[in-house]
Fold this protein.
Amino acid sequence: MIQHTGKNTITTVLGKKGSGKSFFTKKVLIPLFPRLIIIDPLDEYNYFYAYDLKTVVEVTKANWASKKKQFRIVYRPLDEHEDLFFKFVYGLSDITVLIEEVDGYSNGKVIDPYLERLYKYGRHKNINLICISRRPAEIGRLLTAQSDIIISFLQTEKRDIDYFKNFTDDPDQLKRLRVGEYKVLLGESELNRLLRKTDKKAKKT
């Protein structure tokens, strides 16, 4: 397992529905981070889950008190307390937060204030972020500005393709990707570093 000390990682994964981004996140990204809390409005993840924030807080605190090195907790926000969720996780440290449909909480007009703090200051608390969205044109620019790694799967909408002009000379390549194919547009060396480190840990166990 990776011990992230002194530096957080913000990873943004983008792509249209059915392009393979959730499969990639589950199989490649999630194993990189031992302590994980997921906000999951689409019911994508089948770890321990709760529909109310109170249970998520209680279970997280119990895992923390027992000093567990690895856990996965999913919040499916039927109680509509997403604002309190971000406030809660901002009070933690040495953890990873995965945000499905991040454009619902951070777009060009509105951003949850505690999510903004996570973007800007999460490194001081060793809080990693994994942010997932189908529509890159609808997410706030602060996210991509703070991201260490940006990965795109298939894109077909012009606005979404145009979004990537600052990251590649050939944004049209994204509409030629097949299902399951992706392009690392930012931070390929950082992603490879994490993968290598995890592989070394696995060989030791």
Observations:
- The first helix runs from residue 21 to 29.
- Residues 1-5 have pLDDT under 50 and may be disordered.
- Residues 27 and 102 are 20 Å apart (CA to CA).
